[in-house]
């Protein structure tokens, strides 16, 4: 048995690579001496030093330590994550990580095939593999849920599918294969469990776990006892417990830690017998009480507030002070009581109860589940089966089925003889039968009748045949086996329905983990090898055959295929067990076929007749031995009822007794009908053949046939994935640690083929890959091949290896693959690729981020400029408006003040001057009169005249001076007045202009109304009948005029294919149709005149129209060619002197089309660049460099052209069969590739139509028959469209050329 390996911290440890390992040889490919003894010696050295894992190339050899090793904790998982297998010491994590990364990064489905003897540690290896995948894959709520379900499916399947044997404490009695499905990111999204179930084994762990882990209340409800030896099915093996397994703990992990009588109580209308909790509100103090319904005893639960920390306690009141029950232990509380704190508002709106102390691990929460009878709530602990998706009713039904099986096993039969002399029986102890019937939900009388009588049904009759005591016991055992086997299949189905991937995940990748029962052989003196060991060993033979096919045979076959290209290889002999598999599984002459024949043929059949059949038909086989053979007639180690098979692992002697019984389905139809009639819905699902509506007398399939079918499906699934092998070895039979039995290990190493595996790996190459795939993966390591390599992939791979400094002895170039000898070289390539990918990713990130930042900076800069411009404009406008308003105000006040001042001054000056003038005038007049009076008196008149004249001239002079002084002021005043006058005049003119516009509009309106009034006035003299036509004619002309004006501004484009036309009113639809036709005829005429003036454009459109007729809706590539203008000579062939020279020889002047094409060879489907020239009479193939004529075919001999309907550029030119028959013409059809295939076919079709007056057939199909040569049969060219290939990939497979696009 494999001991459970516990986790521990490994921080601070130092690790070495595989090549630097000192404890023996970490990779046995590197052993100096390749012998079986050296392999065993190396395994012993490593085992003694605590190293249980060893490599053989990519195969991991695991030796069971039978003790706890501290190499499986989270630190080791982090250490081996994303590391090469050669970088760290051998470990199971290394091969699991390699498989996971290959599946995630390369998209290749993987499987982990774990093989070895029973007890070699296969089950633990599968657990570790799943735990590692769960630890390194993605995170998230949904991903975590899927991981939890995948991991928790293990304890359920182990409990119901594993059992203790004499070789193994935890032996898998069924073949478990789990496919874990991942999305494109490598996160698990679901899984599928497949099982190859065995029959007739001793009982399984779940029975011992139920009796050891369930409480006495639950056992009482199930009518069970804790004593294992009280049950017939559990006492036959003589072992009731296993030292390395805690049945109680395993039961709690599988079913539930608190699954007790409070959870399982059969009360009235309760669903499944569970206890619900009834809330009672409104009791003393307003507290809410919880009343559990348990028989006739009632408790309430009183919340007590104000205790330690203010938490709420729930205490049952039973009348005594010391009877309190608490829920989770709290360290600092008095008396060591336990209590729970309520937490409200969690997922789903339910109220959960969680421990307050916060300690990790082991505590349970209680989830209220609503929806049972009466709407009450009941409480279920969250455990493995419930996380997987089993409802409480499902768990209850499973426990009831287990109880029924154990109780039925104790039923005893007492035989007696009927008066007619036939044997019959009756049940002796009916107590256990009653218990079983109570669990199954059926009547005891029905069960008693079905176990003691057998219904025999024919097409016309139905009779009851009594059973003997032995037959009754067989019927009882068959029923129990059927219940358990079908229940196990139902459990697997429930697990699959829970963990299966969602249909919304489109692209899924898969990793399978195979954990199957190991090879079993018992010593004849201790235990008989029976039918169970036979089918187990048959399954292991098939697994060994898969190992041989996928490692030894396939690898040697590959080397031999590639040996023609310089790969050195020496064939290594190994044992191929296909002959043993053929001996067992041959559909007509195999042991299983003979066994089915014996079970189904009429007449008396027994194990002896089966053995006689084998002796008759298999005696001549090299791997079959029996006492019927002369050389083994006196073999004392083999009895008369035994036969021996020489398996790949060992010689196994089988006892033929029980083969027919275990192969037949002994479940009588009456038992199936009884199970279907039970009250349990699960039994109706498990026994559908018992339905009265589906009666059939067809014989059921035998166990051997069913097992062979399931094994075949398993092998098919394994062969569809890339295998990763873990070969488990058992160091001793005593299951003791640190004990290494060299003879036992040598035997296992021999039949496991380790020495052949080492030789093949050592003589071969560590890594091989197709040139295309290798170049695609590593082309970034060389500047010559990155980013695009235009040459052959083989040359590109050479350039990559040379660029990293690898010499020719480090690798070999095969016919289609590159072979790398050293794993270290592969590691270096992967490390360089990882660094280069990081550099490329950094460059892409840098460029992308720079582009994003530049775009963002430019956008911000543009936005900043717009904002700045608008803001500055706004500020300037606002500032200008404020300054202008202020200037206007200042000017207004200044000018007002200045005008008022001037007015005051002028007014004051004028008054003063007027006063002075008046005074002076009166004064001078008075003075003059006085002087005159004096002069008169003195009679001096002359003097007076002179004085008057002087004063007059003085006054006149002063008046002139005053006028000149006021003239400058008058000029300034005139300017100011003129400015204000001109401004007033401009404003007046503006107002007049605005008034004029309004007046013009008003005039138009007035004219309309005036004309209308004039018309109405003119029509007043007419009658109403005579006025209506005139008004109608006027309105009709107005509406027609309006529509024509609208149509003038909304005419469509001048293209004849433009179908747009303004939507006319209903009364002008007919006129609109005539105008539309006239406009269309005018456009067509204009287009014809344009094409008559431009013949090149007319030819171009004609060719495009012909291409549309040929390819529209038929080939996906056609839409891309519509926008590309057709050209006749794409390589300027006419101006090339080499073509001029060739024209002189062939007299072909006119070049219809010429371009470089890729000619696909018929032998290897490789592409060769050549020049294809189509002339008026023929098409020619020329050498690309020298333009030397290779082939020339008249167009008369061209039968048709074939293309695929996809977007590839490949076409086939078929030559007439009559031309192929000409011995002077050796070539046949041609297979080309050219991106301008639409252009070429269109031009060729046109020239044949023009010159030869016939139509060239165009064939578009997914499969094309091609005849490359007259003396060869036709070859099929098939096209597969995936949408993921940028350039078509051509491969030759036999008589078929596959083209993947």
Task: Supply database-style keywords.
1301 residues, alpha+beta, 16% strand, elongated
Explain how this protein is built.
This protein is an alpha+beta fold. Helices cover 46% and strands 16% of the residues.
Count of helices? 35
* Helix content, binned percent: 40-55%
Overall spatial form: elongated
Strand arrangement in the largest pleated sheet? 32-31-30-29-35-34-33-36
Strand-residue proportion: 15-25%
How would a textbook summarize the main sheet? 8 strands, mixed
What is the rounded distance between the termini?
A: 52 Å
Q: Give the low-pLDDT segments.
A: 1-13, 257-382
What value does the average pLDDT take? 76
The count of strands amounts to 40
What structural category do the secondary elements indicate? alpha+beta
Compute the gyration radius: what is it?
53 Å
List the helices and strands and how they pair.
Blueprint: H1 36-48, E1 53-56, E2 59-63, H2 74-80, H3 92-106, E3 110-116, H4 122-136, H5 141-161, E4 162-163, E5 171-172, E6 174-182, E7 188-197, H6 205-213, H7 216-221, H8 232-235, H9 247-254, E8 276-280, E9 289-294, E10 297-298, E11 301-304, E12 313-316, E13 341-343, E14 352-354, E15 366-370, E16 377-381, H10 384-388, H11 392-409, E17 413-417, E18 423-427, H12 430-440, H13 444-452, E19 453-457, E20 462-466, H14 469-499, E21 509-515, H15 531-562, H16 578-585, H17 591-600, H18 607-617, E22 624-626, E23 642-646, E24 651-655, H19 659-663, H20 669-676, H21 681-686, H22 703-719, E25 722-729, H23 742-751, H24 754-763, E26 767-770, H25 771-778, H26 793-803, E27 811-813, E28 817-820, H27 823-938, H28 941-1019, H29 1024-1049, H30 1069-1093, H31 1095-1111, H32 1118-1121, H33 1137-1146, E29 1151-1160, E30 1167-1175, E31 1178-1183, E32 1189-1194, E33 1198-1203, E34 1210-1215, H34 1217-1220, E35 1230-1233, H35 1237-1251, E36 1258-1260, E37 1263-1266, E38 1275-1280, E39 1289-1293, E40 1296-1300
Parallel strand pairs: 2-25, 3-21, 3-25, 33-36, 38-40
Antiparallel strand pairs: 1-2, 4-5, 6-7, 6-21, 8-9, 8-16, 9-10, 11-12, 13-14, 15-16, 17-18, 19-20, 22-23, 23-24, 26-28, 27-28, 29-30, 29-35, 30-31, 31-32, 33-34, 34-35, 37-38, 39-40
Helix pairs in contact: 1-23, 3-4, 4-5, 5-9, 5-14, 6-9, 11-12, 11-14, 15-16, 15-22, 17-18, 25-26, 27-28, 31-35
């Amino acid at each position: 048995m494999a001991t459970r390996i516990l986790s521990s911290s490994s921080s601070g440890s130092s690790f070495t690579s595989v090549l630097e390992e000192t404890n023996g040889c970490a990779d046995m490919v590197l052993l100096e001496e390749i012998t079986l003894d050296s392999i065993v010696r190396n395994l012993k050295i490593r085992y003694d030093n605590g190293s249980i894992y060893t490599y053989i190339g990519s195969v991991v050899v695991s030796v069971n330590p039978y003790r706890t090793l501290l190499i499986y904790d989270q630190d080791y998982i982090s250490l081996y994550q994303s590391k090469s297998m050669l970088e760290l010491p051998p470990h199971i994590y290394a091969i699991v990580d390699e498989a996971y990364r290959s599946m995630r990064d390369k998209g290749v489905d993987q499987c982990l095939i774990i093989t070895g003897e029973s007890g070699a540690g296969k089950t633990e290896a599968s657990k570790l593999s799943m735990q590692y995948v769960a630890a390194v894959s993605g995170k998230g709520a949904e991903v975590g849920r899927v991981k939890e379900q995948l991991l928790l499916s293990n304890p359920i399947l182990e409990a119901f599918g594993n059992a203790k044997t004499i070789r193994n404490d935890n032996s898998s009695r069924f073949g478990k294969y789990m496919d874990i499905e991942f999305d494109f990111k490598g996160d698990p999204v679901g899984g599928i469990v497949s099982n190859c179930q065995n029959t007739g084994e001793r009982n399984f762990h779940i029975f011992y776990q139920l009796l050891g882990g369930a409480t006495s209340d639950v056992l009482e409800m199930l009518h069970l006892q804790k004593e294992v030896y009280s049950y017939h099915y559990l006492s036959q093996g003589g072992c009731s417990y296993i030292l390395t397994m805690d049945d109680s703990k395993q039961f709690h992990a599988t079913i539930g830690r608190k699954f007790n009588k409070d959870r399982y109580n059969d009360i009235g209308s309760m669903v499944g017998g569970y206890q619900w909790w009834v809330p009672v509100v409104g009791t003393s103090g307003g507290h809410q009480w919880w009343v559990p319904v348990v028989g006739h005893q009632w408790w309430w639960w009183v919340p007590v507030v104000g205790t330690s920390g203010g938490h709420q306690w729930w205490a049952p009141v039973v009348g005594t002070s010391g009877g309190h029950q608490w829920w989770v232990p709290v360290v600092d509380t008095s008396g060591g009581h336990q209590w729970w704190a309520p937490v409200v508002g969690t997922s789903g709106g339910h109220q959960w109860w969680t421990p307050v102390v916060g300690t990790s691990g082991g505590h349970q929460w209680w989830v209220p589940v609503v929806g049972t009878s009466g709407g009450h709530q009941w409480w279920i602990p969250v455990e493995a089966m419930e996380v997987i998706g089993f409802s409480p009713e499902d768990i209850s039904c499973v426990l009831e089925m287990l109880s029924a099986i154990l109780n039925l096993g104790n039923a005893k039969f007492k035989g007696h003889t009927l008066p007619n002399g036939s044997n019959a029986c009756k049940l002796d102890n009916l107590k256990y039968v009653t218990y079983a019937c109570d669990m199954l939900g059926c009547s005891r009388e029905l069960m008693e009748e079905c176990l003691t009588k057998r219904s025999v049904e024919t097409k016309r009759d139905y009779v009851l045949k009594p059973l003997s005591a032995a037959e009754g016991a067989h019927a009882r055992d068959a029923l129990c086996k059927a219940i358990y086997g079908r229940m196990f299949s139902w459990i697997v189905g429930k697990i699959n329905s829970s963990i299966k991937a969602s249909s919304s995940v489109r692209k899924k990748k898969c990793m399978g983990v195979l954990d199957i029962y190991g090879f079993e052989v018992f010593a004849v003196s201790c235990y008989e090898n029976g039918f169970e060991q036979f089918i187990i060993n048959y399954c292991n033979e098939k697994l060994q055959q898969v190992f041989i096919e996928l490692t030894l045979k396939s690898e040697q076959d590959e080397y031999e295929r590639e040996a023609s290209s310089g790969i050195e290889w020496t064939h290594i002999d190994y044992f191929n067990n296909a002959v043993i598999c053929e001996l067992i599984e041959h559909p007509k002459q195999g042991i299983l076929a003979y066994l089915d024949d014996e079970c189904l043929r009429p007449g008396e059949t027994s194990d002896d007749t089966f053995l006689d059949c084998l002796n008759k038909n298999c005696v001549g086989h090299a791997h079959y031995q029996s006492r019927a053979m002369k050389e083994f007639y006196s073999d004392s180690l083999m009895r008369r009822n035994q036969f021996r098979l020489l398996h790949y692992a060992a010689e196994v002697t089988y006892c033929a007794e029980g083969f027919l019984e275990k192969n037949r389905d002994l479940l009588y139809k009456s038992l199936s009908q009884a199970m279907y009639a039970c009250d349990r819905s699960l039994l109706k699902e498990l026994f559908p053949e018992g339905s009265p509506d589906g009666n059939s007398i067809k014989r059921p399939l035998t166990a051997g046939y069913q097992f062979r079918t399931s094994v075949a499906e398993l092998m098919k699934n394994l062969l569809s994935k890339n295998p990763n092998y873990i070969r488990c070895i058992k160091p001793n039979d005593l299951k003791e640690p640190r004990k290494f039995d060299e003879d036992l290990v040598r035997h296992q190493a021999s039949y496991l083929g380790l020495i052949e595996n080492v030789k093949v790996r050592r003589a071969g190459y560590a890594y091989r890959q197709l040139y295309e795939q290798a170049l695609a993966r590593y082309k970034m390591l060389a500047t010559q091949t990155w980013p695009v390599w235009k040459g052959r992939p083989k040359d590109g791979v050479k350039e990559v290896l040379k660029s990293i400094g690898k010499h020719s002895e480090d690798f070999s170039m095969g016919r289609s693959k590159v072979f790398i000898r050293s794993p270290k070289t592969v590691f270096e390539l992967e490390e360089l690729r990882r660094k280069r990918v990081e550099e490329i990713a950094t460059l892409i990130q840098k460029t992308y981020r720079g582009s994003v930042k530049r775009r963002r900076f430019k956008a911000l800069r543009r936005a900043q400029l717009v904002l700045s411009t608008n803001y500055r404009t706004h500020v300037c406008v606002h500032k200008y408006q404020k300054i202008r308003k202020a200037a206007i105000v200042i000017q207004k006040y200044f000018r007002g003040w200045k005008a008022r001042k001037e007015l005051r001054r002028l007014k004051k000056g004028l008054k003063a001057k007027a006063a002075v003038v008046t005074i002076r005038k009166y004064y001078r007049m008075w003075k003059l009169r006085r002087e005159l009076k004096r002069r008169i008196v003195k009679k001096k008149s002359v003097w007076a005249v002179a004085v008057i004249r002087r004063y007059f001239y003085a006054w006149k002079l002063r008046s002139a001076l005053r006028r000149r002084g006021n003239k400058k002021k008058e000029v300034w005043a005139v300017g100011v007045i003129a400015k204000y006058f001109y401004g007033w005049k401009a404003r007046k003119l503006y107002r007049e202009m605005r008034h004029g516009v309004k007046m013009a509009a008003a005039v138009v309106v007035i004219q309309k109304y005036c004309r209308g009034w004039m018309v109405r006035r003119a029509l007043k003299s007419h009658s109403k009948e005579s006025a209506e036509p005139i008004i109608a004619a006027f309105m009709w002309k107005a509406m027609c005029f309006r529509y024509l004006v609208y149509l003038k501004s909304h005419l469509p484009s001048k293209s004849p294919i433009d179908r747009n036309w303004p939507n006319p009113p209903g009364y002008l639809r007919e006129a609109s149709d005539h105008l539309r036709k006239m406009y269309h005829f005018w456009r067509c005429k204009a287009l014809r005149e344009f094409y008559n003036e431009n013949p090149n454009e007319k030819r171009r459109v004609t060719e495009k129209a012909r291409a549309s007729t040929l390819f529209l809706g038929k080939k996906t590539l056609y839409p891309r060619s519509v926008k590309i203008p057709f050209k006749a000579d794409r390589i300027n062939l006419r101006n090339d002197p080499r073509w001029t020279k060739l024209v002189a020889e062939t007299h072909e002047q006119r070049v219809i089309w010429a371009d470089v094409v890729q000619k696909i060879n018929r032998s290897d489907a490789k592409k060769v660049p050549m020049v294809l020239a189509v002339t008026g009479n023929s098409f020619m193939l020329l050498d690309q460099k020298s333009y030397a004529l290779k082939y020339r075919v008249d167009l008369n001999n061209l039968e048709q052209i074939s293309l695929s309907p996809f977007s590839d550029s490949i076409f086939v030119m078929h030559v007439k069969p009559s031309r192929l028959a000409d011995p002077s013409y050796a070539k046949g059809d041609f297979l080309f590739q050219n991106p301008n295939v639409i252009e070429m076919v269109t031009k060729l079709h046109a020239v044949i139509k023009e010159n030869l007056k016939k139509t060239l057939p165009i064939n578009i199909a997914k499969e094309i028959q091609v005849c490359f040569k007259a003396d060869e049969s036709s070859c099929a060219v098939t096209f597969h469209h995936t949408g993921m290939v940028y350039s078509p990939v051509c491969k030759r497979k036999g008589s078929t050329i596959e083209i993947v696009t």
